[in-house]
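If you are new to this repository, start here. Below is one unmodified record pulled from the training split, so you can see the exact layout before writing a loader.
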Amino acid sequence: MPITLPVSIKSLKITSGPKQTVFYPKVMQMTNQQMQRLINTAIVYETQKLINEQVGNMPTTVKEMLGFYEIKNNQRQVLSLTFSNYTYHDQAAHGMTYLRSLTFDLKKGKQCQLRHLFKPEVDYMKKLSEIIKMQMKQRDIPLLHEFNTIKPNQDFYIADKTIVIYFQLYEITPYVFGFPMFPISVYDIQELIDENGPLSRMAVND
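And here is the target side for that same chain:
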């Protein structure tokens, strides 16, 4: 596999008062300028969507808002990022945090949804759900209701040789549990993954 340099990223921020700052990334110096525009447009859209979600959910005044991002993968022509936004409203019992992610296949020049990572004929949702159920049992995770299956558009990110499936606060577990994260090794699902996709590249041992 030819060596591909990581994407250059710099941090930008939106500030609206001493306790309202949102940091977000900007991709720089890519050879493929069209892909660079696509990535940066998606980042700005996701960042603004999180802000709107937080502000629009409550009729009360926002007292605090902190937004951060993390680079989960920036190698093998796969860029995967997460975005978190914590917001506290006036007189609320506690703040609320949302987590979102974006994954891009730089080789194919497109943004990836979960279905794009797998062969079209396989039932990836069933297999991933089975693995998650097993982890729930092994880790004794407290559930708000019985878990049956992930959604077709389930939240995920890629981190090296792992795909991490995650859920929002309150989605399947109590608030105090935090974000339920389920790391799945690419080697455990190798027969399902698209041979020309991001997870296949992650599985290669250099």
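Two things worth knowing about this chain: Residues 129 and 187 are 16 Å apart (CA to CA). The first helix runs from residue 33 to 56.
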